[in-house]
Design goal:
The protein has about 575 residues and is mainly alpha-helical. Among the domains are: about 110 residues; about 70 residues, Arc Repressor Mutant, subunit A, CATH 1.10.10. About 75% of the residues lie in helices and about 0% in strands. It is built from 32 helices and 2 strands. Strands 1-2 form a two-stranded antiparallel sheet. The longest helix is centred in the N-terminal third of the chain and has 18 residues. It is elongated, with a radius of gyration of 32 Å. About 0% of the residues have low confidence.
């Protein structure tokens, strides 16, 4: 008909290469609208209903709901919301869903769990926690006697993501082998089951469910769910200590968020927090500080308290690593104070407590360090991480035998650690104790073990914070670690200063400094440079003064840390 109208009257014109759509001339458009208004609101509403059903038949929920909302047919709008609410949540079209729910009215939403539960999930994504809890309360009030598994899935997800305390019955239904037939509800069911397994520390089971939900989201175009699954897979990797995987999937989640303008959602914030922590542990303090600062700037509205705590703590630790040690520690302490009594996973408590504890101990603030230790102990109880923290305190006080006794169960694997990187810390502490005791072979073995444990974890920061004796041994043994030489290079570079001091050394001092790591005596260096030995000694004294060291070995260590020695000078 439209094709005939185009050829016979020219009042419409086909658009596009496939001629599937037609535009109406403006004059005719104006006339038709005026004629429609003369026919009355009932006629307009009826045509909106026709349009809503047509768009629904084309599987275009946003347009269908917009027309249904203007049709004044409550039954039609309700039916379309029952059909499309969950898919809209999973693809990320939350605003059209909220508009349709608002149009249908608070009473209708509150008395129908098929509407109140999607409303709760939508409000959760918008950061409206109070409204989400109200929706969940209404769903519980009007819960059907024999609610289907699909409805139980919606309730379980709403409860798990923060709208209220999970109740046994729906959660139990959602975690059986029974899965809904609809792909969107099956995906949500797997998301719910993954969360339940993660809460029970079944990391393999959680990862399996999240990966299944991710596969469904990719197959059916559930883009928002895809971002959620990637963020949750990052959480699984984080609690497993797999920083490389955490970094990869968190980056993918952020790319998905950027593609759709979801950068300020709670899931994007969670992924950013994990990525920032990963950069910090890789000793990339500048990147960690930037990621955390960018996400902290808008305020905590779209963040969970747990993500906000991580971002604040990582930012403080990065500031500490970048040179403002007092400011970094103060920020770490403030982050814990702001977090208050909010619940968090044991792994997160361990990670954040260790950041603050190490900063305080390195600054010599034993009271502040013990405060972080006590907070961690109260939250999680005994663990290998807590024993390692106590061992640091003992070692700092010169009680190395007690320190060694505390970390022995961590080293032999009999004590479970919440963070795999804690094992790296324990071996580095053992290295420093062995060096202090004059046990050089044992120290070398401990250092090599630390490198071997750190490599798959991508945990470089522990080496940057290690004692000077450990870093000195790392320099002296450089090139002898075999398969771990590459990570030894990264560990050595991790201590490099962020403000190289090359400018304060003269060219001749740089030349002499480059020869200090060799086995040449000062006489040999003088002969090599064709100068007197007194001249060399004068240069060495100047180097010591400028680098703030008192021995040749410490000068070599400081030179590496300030990036003053290239690979050719080793």
């Amino acid at each position: 008909m439209l094709d005939r109208l185009e050829h016979q009257t020219a009042l419409v014109a086909a658009t596009g290469g496939r001629r599937e759509a037609y535009s109406v001339q403006e004059l005719l458009h104006t006339y038709l609208l005026a004629d429609l208004q003369r026919q009355g609101e009932r006629r307009v509403a009826g045509l909106h209903a026709v349009a809503a059903r047509w768009w629904a038949g084309q599987d275009q929920p946003v347009q269908a709901l917009e027309h249904a909302a203007q049709s004044h047919e409550t039954g039609l709008l309700t039916d379309l919301l029952h059909r499309f609410a969950v898919p809209l949540l999973l693809v990320g079209d939350h605003e059209p869903l909220r508009r349709a729910l608002s149009r249908i009215g608070a009473h209708a939403t509150a008395t129908d769990p098929w509407l109140s539960l999607p409303s709760a999930l939508s409000n959760l994504e918008a950061g409206e926690l109070v409204a989400a809890r109200g929706d969940l309360h209404h769903a519980r009030q009007f819960w059907p006697a024999h609610g289907p598994v699909e409805l139980a899935v919606l309730r379980a997800v709403a409860e798990q993501f923060g709208a209220g305390t999970p109740s046994p019955a729906p959660s139990a239904i959602a975690n059986t082998d029974e899965l809904p037939a609809e792909p969107e509800l099956e995906a949500l069911a797997r998301l719910s089951r993954g969360n339940a397994r993660l809460e029970h520390d079944d990391r393999i089971g959680a990862r399996t469910e999240f990966e299944a939900a991710l596969a469904l989201s990719c197959r059916y175009g559930f883009d928002y769910l895809q971002m959620q699954c990637l963020a949750l897979l990052g959480v699984v990797a984080a609690v497993s200590g797999d920083l490389r995987t955490m970094r990869a999937v968190s980056s993918d989640a952020l790319l998905a968020a950027a593609d759709h303008g979801w950068e300020r959602t709670s899931w994007s914030t969670a992924a950013t927090a994990m990525l920032a922590y990963s950069e910090l542990m890789r000793s990339e303090a500048t990147a960690a500080e930037r990621l955390a600062a960018d996400c902290l700037a808008p305020g905590p509205a779209a963040s969970s308290p747990q993500s906000w705590f991580t971002l604040q703590s990582v930012h403080g630790a990065a500031v500490f690593d970048l040179g403002d040690r007092a400011g970094g520690l103060a920020e770490l302490q403030q982050a814990r104070s702001d977090f208050g009594a909010v619940e968090a996973g044991a792994e997160q408590c361990a990670a954040m407590a260790l950041l603050e504890f190490r900063a305080a101990l390195l600054l010599g603030h034993s009271t502040a360090a013990l405060s972080a230790l006590a907070w961690f102990a109260e939250r999680t109880g005994d663990s290998g991480d807590l024993s390692t923290m106590r061992a640091w305190v003992e070692s700092a006080g010169g009680r190395r035998d007690q320190a060694r006794s505390l970390i022995r169960p961590v080293l032999n694997g009999s004590a479970r650690t919440l963070l795999p990187s804690t094992v790296v810390d324990a071996w580095l502490l053992e290295t420093s104790i062995a060096v202090a005791a004059g046990e050089r072979p044992a120290a070398r073995r401990a250092l090599q073990t630390a490198l071997a444990v750190a490599e798959p974890l991508d945990a470089i920061r522990p080496f940057a914070l290690a004692e000077p004796s450990v870093r000195e041994l790392l320099i002296h043994q450089h090139g002898s670690f075999g398969a771990w030489d590459e990570i030894a290079d990264r560990a050595l570079a991790a201590g490099a200063g962020h403000t190289p001091q090359r400018a304060i050394l003269s060219e001749r001092e740089i030349t002499v400094l480059g020869l200090l790591p060799s086995l040449l005596s000062l006489d040999d260096i003088a002969a090599d440079l064709a100068v007197s030995v007194n001249t060399v000694k004068s240069h060495v004294r100047s180097i010591y003064a400028k680098l703030g060291v008192s021995s040749r070995r410490l000068a070599v260590l400081a030179a590496h840390e300030h990036g003053l020695l290239g690979s050719g000078a080793r």
